[in-house]
Amino acid sequence: MAEPSSSAPPLGAVGGSPGTEDEGSPPRPAFDRRHAWLIAAMIVTFMLINYADKSVLGLAAVPIMDELGISNSTYGMISSSFSLLFSLSGLAVGFVSARVSSRVLLFTMAALWAVAQLPVLLVASVPALVAGRVLLGAAEGPAASMSMHALYKWFPADRRGLPSALQISGAALGMLIAAPVVTWLITSFGWRSAFVVLAVTSAVWSLLWWWVGHDGPYGGESTGRAGRHRPAGAPSPGVTPASAQPQRLPYRRLLLNGTVLGSITAAFGASWALALSHAWLPAYLRTQLDMSPGGAATVISAISAFSLVLLLSVPVLVDTFRRRGRSSRWSTGAPQGAAVAVAALAMATFPFVDGRGAHLVLLAVAFGGHAIVFPLHYMTASAVVPTIQRGAVFGVVAAAGTLPGLVSPYLTGHLLDSAATRSAGYTHAYLLSAAVMLVCAVVALVTIRPERDARRLGLG
Known about the structure:
This protein is mainly alpha-helical. The protein has helices spanning 33-59, 61-68, 72-81, 86-96, 102-116, 119-122, 126-140, 143-152, 161-189, 191-212, 251-255, 258-287, 293-323, 328-349, 356-368, 373-382, 390-401, 404-418, 422-447, 450-456. The protein has one domain (33-214, 251-456): Growth Hormone, Chain: A (Up-down Bundle), CATH 1.20.1250.20. Helix content is 70%, strand content 0%. It is globular and about 55 Å long.
């Protein structure tokens, strides 16, 4: 597909029509709708595989613990090992993204996902499980932020709500589709079969991405579509020259403004619940609610469907509000804090509810209601960051926001082993989670103010 010529008026440019640019100003990039949505479809699939890989250990927790004879604390340690390099990797790759194309980065990640499934297939042991999860975590740490960065290269600012929601919806789809499929593989062919299928799926995606995953015209970088660097000062076809981009700002100023800190805090609260659900929700449904593997998979899929509905509706409304000139503080900031707060209240309530129906509804809100935070916290952060530094800041936001994955699973396992009963252990874990999430919600509501912080940074 040919790229738009930098010498021709950009057709389909958002916010104007061909030939309406000020004389002497650089042409705006054309919106290549067809390829943009192809990239979006690939990235949704990328995120689907990402969350299937991430959740397979939780779905196979009971048979793995039974076969290897491991305790709750040991299983929690294995689950937490996934996050050992997760945040560090996300941080490092975020800064690398300014010099390496998204095509190369996402291809490398998916290929490593396939490799990470192999250790436990060779030797079924605790060290093999830890090795595989550490490698998988390192390869998945940058996945959400870098795939969002790749997506933003194909969509202008006022068209990113739905694509952002679809990107994050890959997580919900991952659980909606993966939970029953992976559970079927585990119960029909043994838990190892799920690891094999996921390894093959990751390898196939990486090859397809290498073929179609070129960088788009809204990146602000000086890399070509194949990821090769152009000489300094050489303009990219269809991309605004570097001289017209906002100048770089000190990262200290970017990372310590209220909007970025609030976005990180909102993500931290949502990620606490997410890490808890990946590691312990399947086991909770089976051991505390006496569900069969298929029944637990159905409940997890239902929770994911609820998340998907939120993801596909709320960010679309956000785009509408933005086009109508509504404040980003209330259109994208407040919903983040509110979502985490509501999920926290549900988390604190459901352990004390006896009715099965009410219990499951509160479970859905606690583990699915926070989903809208993930697309929105990228949108608020991107509003106060120059385009050229977006990938690096996204990496920092993702790294800090996903730190609960290192703590939540292990802490829950420890509480289960130390409590008088397993039920009491889960209650303690959920109350602690609710407290952490509620604090994060309040901080996000108070600090996220994109317009104010953009003005202070000279970007508004």
